[in-house]
Structures are given as structure tokens and as C-alpha cells.
Design brief:
340 residues, alpha/beta, TIM Barrel
């Protein structure tokens, strides 16, 4: 793990109430998938090129028509207000200052209109009341989101021992409440819809008028099915180990998904990335960008917007350093043959 991320996590552990830290940190079931996330990236080995002019290294990219300084993005995660009083607004400021992009969660602790200050996408759940999902993605589009990320791996919430949300002092329905019918407390209507299928991709794209990426893809055949159904990209993710325990690590799933997509659309990946070297491996395996989840939450708890910026800056600077050591001047030069 990069030292800056280690420092943020240690500070967050001191400052956060145990219930909050457990809510963020806990995975599903026996924690197998959560534990394996980091070690799966660390198991990969590199084959650097020598005698390349790497006097200048560029980490910038264009992703779905948005120019960014870094391929290290911020993954959607719920309830940032538990980590810092400014919640997602602070996360957005730090992300923008780092030249990155925020994926804002449906279950943000701030109204989505009060958050954006840089490039951002909106993460959507397919809820039992589909009208709620449509209303949220339309609001996100009106507020300036440039894509929707549909979470596809939550027909039901995974069993997360010790990570209950009931006792946490913030509102998980901050963005949904205004759309609930009179007398509806959201208890059932906001649950994930287990009947959701590939048709929701076109449904959400039509409602939002935006590109839709599907998050939670771990198989090549699923990636192809999503693209054939209209997805503009996929995110290789196991939900931070919070859904199906013993799901394959994203480091292991990524090559199959990349090969299946075969350049048709962007492939992103999250889960256990903790250093520039991890990011380099992910890019070499074919990811167009990566997303950080828990490290951003720890950084937010440690130092608000400045902590988020320093987290993203540290990993980006580390990436530029190891790119140079591997003989790659640009992201386009980070290719599969760099990985043993």
C-alpha cells in the first residue's frame, strides 16, 4: 500500500466511531473476497522495458469524452457524511482538484445537486420502484452528470456481519425522499429489484439521455451481453467484497473481460488497488481506468477535501513513477506484455 494511503487509514481509524469504520470496511460473509482484493494485485509481476526515453511521463486520458489528468477515479460509495461533515461535497472538491472524476452514489448523504464541482458520473441502483431510479438519473443528468453507472451485482444486499446501517446517524435516502409517494417510508420501494435484467440498460439510458456503464461485471460473457444490450462500458467489480463472498478477485477477472470486450467500449476496474504499481498492472491488463473506494473514504475522514486530493495525487504520482521505470511514457504505451 502506498504510504500516504496507509497514513490516511491509520488516522481514519483513530477518528471514526467503530460502527462507521466497520460499515465502510466490512465485506460479506467470511470476508474471503474482501481479504483477497489487495493480494491479487500484489501477486502480479512486471516485465519492464529498458532504454526508453521516459524524461516525460503523461498520465492523462480522455474517458467518454471527458479529459482527465489521471486514470485514478473515485468509486461510488455510500454515506460520505459519516466520514466528514461536508460529506460528498468535500469528496467532489478533492477529486476535482486532483483532475479526476467522481462517481456519486445514489446513497450519498448530500443532495446530488449540492455535490458536483468537477467531472462526475452518477451511480444508480435498479430499485423496486423503477420510477425512483428514472427520477434520480434524470436529476443527475440535469445537474451535469455525463454518464450513469448502473450497479448490476445487487439483486439483494450481501450479508455483511457487523456492518449494519440502522444505527448510523445519517440519511441514506437524502436523494430519494422527495420522490417517495405520500406514506411511503422507502423501506420496500427503494430496495434493489431482483427482477432487473439487461433491459434496464436501455431503460436507464433512455431516461437519462446519457451513456450507461454496468458495474459488477466479473465475466467475459456478461460483459458482451451488457454491451449488446446498449451499455457504453463496464466496470469490473465485486462490490468491494460486500456482495457474494468468494467471488473472484477483480485482478483475476479483468483479463477475461478485457479480451471479451475487445476494444468495443471502456473497461474500468475497482477493488483492492492501493498503489501506483497496482494501477500500472490494471492498465497493463487492459483497464482504461481504475476506481478507488475505501482509500478515498479514509482520506476524507483524515483530512476532508485535502485528504481526498492528496490520496489521488499520491497514487497518480506513484503511477507516473512506475510507468517511467517500466519504460512507458503514456497510458497508450502500457500494454499487456508488461505483465508476466
Amino acid at each position: 500500500m502506498h504510504p500516504a494511503l496507509t497514513a490516511h487509514e491509520a488516522t481514519a481509524a483513530e477518528r471514526l466511531p467503530p460502527a462507521v469504520r466497520d460499515y465502510y470496511a466490512t465485506g460479506a460473509g467470511g470476508q474471503t473476497t474482501a481479504r483477497e482484493a489487495e493480494t491479487a494485485w500484489a501477486a502480479r509481476r512486471l516485465r519492464p522495458r529498458v532504454l526508453r526515453d521516459v524524461s516525460s511521463v503523461d498520465t492523462s486520458l480522455t474517458l467518454l469524452r471527458t479529459r482527465l489528468r489521471t486514470p485514478v477515479l473515485v468509486a461510488p460509495s455510500a454515506l460520505h457524511g459519516l466520514a466528514h461533515p461536508d460529506g460528498e461535497a468535500a469528496t467532489a472538491r478533492g477529486t476535482a482538484d486532483a483532475g479526476s472524476l467522481l462517481v456519486l452514489s445514489t446513497r450519498a448523504s448530500r443532495r446530488l445537486e449540492d455535490v458536483p464541482c468537477g467531472p462526475w458520473w452518477f451511480q444508480a441502483y435498479v430499485m423496486r420502484d423503477r420510477g425512483l431510479t428514472r427520477a434520480l438519473v434524470q436529476r443527475a443528468a440535469a445537474a451535469g452528470a455525463t454518464a450513469v453507472v448502473v450497479t448490476g451485482d445487487t439483486p439483494y444486499l450481501g450479508t455483511r456481519p457487523g456492518a449494519g446501517r440502522a444505527a448510523l446517524a445519517t440519511d441514506p435516502l437524502a436523494n430519494v425522499a422527495q420522490h417517495l409517494a405520500a406514506g411511503d417510508d422507502g423501506g420496500r420501494s427503494t430496495e434493489q429489484d431482483p427482477s432487473a435484467d439487461l433491459d434496464v440498460i436501455a431503460e436507464i439510458a433512455s431516461a437519462a439521455g446519457l451513456p450507461v456503464l454496468v458495474k459488477g461485471v466479473l465475466r467475459g460473457d456478461d460483459a458482451i451481453a451488457c454491451l449488446d444490450a446498449g451499455a457504453a462500458g463496464v466496470v469490473v467489480s465485486n462490490h468491494g467484497g460486500r456482495q457474494l463472498d468468494r467471488a473472484v478477485p477483480t485482478a483475476a477477472a479483468l483479463p477475461e473481460v478485457v479480451d471479451a470486450v475487445a476494444g468495443r467500449a471502456p473497461v474500468l476496474v475497482d477493488g483492492g488497488l492501493r498503489s501506483g504499481t497496482d494501477v500500472l498492472v490494471a492498465l497493463a491488463l487492459g483497464a482504461d481506468a481504475v476506481l478507488l473506494g475505501r482509500p478515498v473514504l479514509w482520506a476524507l475522514a483524515a483530512n476532508g477535501a485535502d485528504g481526498v486530493r492528496s490520496c489521488l495525487d499520491a497514487v497518480t504520482a506513484d503511477l507516473a513513477h512506475v510507468m517511467g521505470l517500466a519504460g512507458s511514457r503514456t497510458l497508450a504505451e502500457v500494454s499487456r506484455d508488461l505483465v508476466a
